[in-house]
Write a structure and sequence with these properties.
The protein is 49% helix and 11% strand. A four-stranded parallel sheet has the order 3-2-1-4, sandwiched between helices. By secondary structure, it is an alpha/beta fold. Helix 1 (14-26) packs parallel to helix 2 (43-60) and helix 4 (89-109) packs across helix 5. It has seven helices and four strands, in the order βαβαβααβααα. Strand 1, helix 1 and strand 2 form a beta-alpha-beta unit. The chain has a single domain (5-179), classed as Rossmann fold, CATH 3.40.50.620. The radius of gyration is 15 Å and the shape is globular.
């Protein structure tokens, strides 16, 4: 379609994609969904989250692209910061890793804009994500937490019967959650 406002949306998981997609569509964007999450601790969990995203994509009739799963590469990117608390330096490196992948994919596909669902989570600092995103051409600062995005993602995921994981993604977040 001509004059289509295409945007590559880096998606962390199906639940977070729900309200982000709703917001982008209402702002006249056409999102192409990019599942790129080598931060996830196991391939099994990676595939499980991907399957949930496929349900959301089908409901919205949107294209999904799946990145390769390369956890060793992600581990080397955060090396030395494994013990950091959630929300600290490890997460900043993790955001950068995934945003770089999204930037490269957008470039490869000739899509001039990209953004991420990571800002939906109330556990993630949107300003920190924006300060990393601005290093990459075409990054759109969209705060999906705004307009009640986080609550909306919960409502929509329940409605769709989506699996909602109880840890962020990496083994370190899983370990921390198991201690709570
Ligand atoms: S807690 Fe989440 S954001 Fe932080 S490093 Fe782990 S997977 Fe990445």
């Amino acid at each position: 379609m001509q004059n289509e406002k295409k945007i590559l949306l880096h998606v962390c998981c199906g639940p977070c994609s729900t309200s982000s997609i709703e917001r982008l569509l209402s702002d006249s964007w056409t999102p192409v969904l990019y599942f790129s999450n080598s931060n996830i601790d196991t391939k099994e969990e990676f595939e499980k989250r991907y399957k949930e995203l496929l349900k959301v994509a089908a409901l919205n009739n949107l294209e999904v692209i799946k990145d390769d799963y390369d956890h060793p590469s992600w581990l080397s990117a955060i090396k030395g910061y494994e013990k950091e608390r959630e929300g600290g330096s490890r997460c900043l490196l993790c955001f950068e890793y995934n945003l770089r992948r999204a930037y490269m994919k957008a470039k490869e596909l000739g899509i001039s804009h990209f953004t991420t669902t990571l800002t939906v989570s109330r556990f993630k600092n949107s300003k920190a994500i924006f300060s990393i995103g601005e290093k990459f051409d075409g990054f759109e600062e969209i705060d999906f937490k705004k307009k009640d995005g986080f609550n909306r993602s919960i409502i929509l995921s329940r409605k769709m019967g989506l699996y909602r994981q109880n840890y962020c993604g990496c083994e370190f977040s899983k370990e921390a959650r198991s201690k709570v």
